[in-house]
Amino acid sequence: MKILVYGAGVIGCYLTHVLCAAGNDVTLLARGSWRETLERDGLTIVHHLQKKTTHDRPRVIGALDSEHYDMVFAVMQYQQMAAILDDLAQADSPMVVLVGNNMAAGEMERSIRERTAAPKAVLFGFQGTGGRREAGRAVCVRFGDMGMTVGGVRGEPSAAEKQVLSSAFSSTGYRLTWSADMDAWYKCHLAFILPIAYLSYALDCNLRRATGKQIKTGLQAVREGYGLLDALGYPILPEDTMEKLHGFKGALSYVLLRLMAKTTIGGGFVSTLLFALYNGGLGVWYASLWYESICAYYILLSLLRCILLTAKRKAGPELGERRRKKVFLTTAGILLVMNLALCIPVSLMVLDQRPIRAGMIPAITSAAYTTYKISSAVVRWKRTNGTILDRELSTIRLVDALVSVLVLQNTLIIAVDGGISPRMFRLVAVSSAGILLLIFAVSAAWFLWMYKSTDP
After folding, report:
1. Which residues contact 236 (CB under 8 A, 6 or more apart)?
2. Through-space distance between the first and last CA atoms of the chain, rounded to whole angstroms
3. What's the Rg (C-alpha) of the chain?
4. Which of 114, 137, 226, 284 has the fewest CB atoms inside 10 Å of its own CB, making it the most exposed?
5. 187, HSE (Cβ side, Cα atoms, 13 Å)
6. What are the pLDDT digits (tens) for 42-78?
7. At a CB cut-off of 8 Å and minimum separation 6, what does 191 contact?
8. How does pLDDT run across 424-447, given as a tens digit for each residue?
């Protein structure tokens, strides 16, 4: 298919990447120096959470041309969309999809239909990616392959329109969700996102400073916004939205928002906590004290991260700095004790002769987690900014990665051999002791440094 993406922000860039991956003939409309960069170097996207970089070579133009396109995606900020409605109306294409938040969907649809020379479908969509442009590349933050919610102002796309849209994204993993009322969908989305955005502005765009009370107030504002829309006769979309704001799901939403506020997309904390729960599940399933011990260790490691970030937020000047250093010293001591206690589960791993047939899935999971943690620890260590907090978090990440190596070692042994054979006993004991000594050295060195740098 021949497709035009009108707008080269982060959302437009990722959309272009996916359409190129599907084998489409993609044209990207960009302006200014960014257009020159795209023409010279192609489209480079750093996928932040996926830890990968992609390169595409779409055709680049600076203004709408006379080419025929099977569809046009207009990806502009809401305040800029009105300025390109003439172009969208004149575009030689049977379908136009306006992507992004839009509080005037009905008016824009009418404007395009009134100005167009030939009938065309006017749809609206939303793609939940974020990021920024920097140094000749786009940095994209997304969960999974993402997707787009697509629909009309009043009604879902026709069967033929759905077929065309689905074909454009075939074999990419990009999910299309159909909506029968995008006008209501947009308003419901803004009712959720605006309180969070205003809270972010109030905190100088640093949500790590948000208190529990502020997050609860934000969620209450979301509920009130949905209540207003409901009173005005708008359907609340998606349909299960209200359930997520009350009762148990409401409490879970609060917890998730706090995790995402306190960490970078919740990534380090959530991945460690999920790995802890995964090991706990293996411990219950196989009645293994090793896995249960590792579960407890990682849960404590996650709590240490929370304590450190909370201390940073609550500390004020001078007196707060002294308290903060004491908290850092305490957590460094706890980390040292935890790592000394690792001798117990490691001994269980080496001495446990009871065979366990775990299969390759736990081994693959541990390998993936270990690779991610080692890569993350190395990258974050290089980016350490020199503050005490950043250094301690980097130390915890390094310890996290080293312990994951122990977990992977044990998991591979029980997956392949069903237990430690006599010929493997010495090798496992030596390698485990070496990793443990390195963990002890890292945590002890950090504790001593903190002890010396903390005022009595």
Report:
1. 184, 188, 226, 229, 230, 242
2. 70
3. 26
4. 114
5. 18
6. 999 999 878 789 999 999 999 999 999 999 999 999 9
7. 222, 225, 226, 228, 229
8. 666 666 777 788 888 888 888 878
